[in-house]
Amino acid sequence: MSTPVFEIRQGTSPVILAFPHTGTDVPPAIYDRLNDNGRILADTDWHIHELYDGLLSDSTTVRATFHRYVIDANRDPAGVSLYPGQNTTGLVPETDFDGKPIWKDGQAPDEADIAARLRDFHAPYHAALAAEIERVRAMHGVAVLYDCHSIRSHIPFLFEGKLPDFNIGTDMGKTCDGAIEQATLTVVEAAEGYDSVLNGRFKGGWTTRHYGKPETGVHAIQMELAQSTHLQTEAPPFAYDAARADRLRVHLKDILVRIEQIAPGLKR
Predict the structure, then answer these.
(1) Long-range own/partner contacts, residues 78-84 (CB < 8 A, 24 or more apart)
(2) Whole-angstrom distance, CA of residue 176 vs CA of residue 14
(3) How many whole angstroms separate alpha carbon 33 and alpha carbon 52?
(4) Is residue 268 in a domain?
(5) Which SUPFAM superfamilies match (predicted)?
(6) Of 89, 77, 78, nearest in space to 123 by CA
(7) In whole angstroms, what separates CA 108 from the centre of its chain?
(8) What's the predicted TM-score (pTM) here?
(9) Based on the structure, what is the number of domains in the chain?
(10) 109-126: pLDDT as tens digits
(11) Domain span at residue 189?
(12) Alpha-carbon distance 219 to 180, whole Å?
């Protein structure tokens, strides 16, 4: 029996947590086409669903189980770049975040492959996410999508220097009410021992930009965490650091609780 494309846990909170990049499942036929570098699956958002587990008990969660090398659930299905003119990876990546090839010679996906993966992975995940957003909005008159991500703190191919610990993305304030943005910013700016940025290198991926339409009662915000905040090392085996994670979880819970408290006042 094949692995389900997504996992859902339904809750009663107005807050929905999405996890498009924590999955590590790669179908054998696709895995066989990855080269040794690709098979490391280095660009996974390692342990992020574990990091957020239990922080907001009544939240809905929607998690993609497939790896972003199969297809990236946080990219425009039309293949439009999120960051024109900047290095990034596409709908089905040809390279890793260091710009190194991930497919065997002559095995990179073609248009037919991409179309099939859109149908079999990307579309079902987003159909599930959209359905949960509608369910929550029907229940509360408002829904807040919090898109959960992480990335290595040093990736010269994508950005210079060290990435801040907390990277908040709202597409320059377009995807959520300012109260949600401000509440999140207040927590991270007060978090001792951490640094942060609002709409820096990461301004929110396709998920945040596609669903975040405050005028419809749907708000979206992306949190990109530097993996140094919760991993033992940002290299294989990418092990979870419980002590670091526990310190971080205090602040993440504060963010989510504040957003949950704000949400009822955002009804249209």
Answers:
(1) 79/114, 82/205, 82/206, 82/209, 83/203
(2) 14
(3) 32
(4) no
(5) Zn-dependent exopeptidases
(6) 77
(7) 24
(8) 0.95
(9) 1
(10) 999 999 999 999 999 999
(11) 4-263
(12) 8
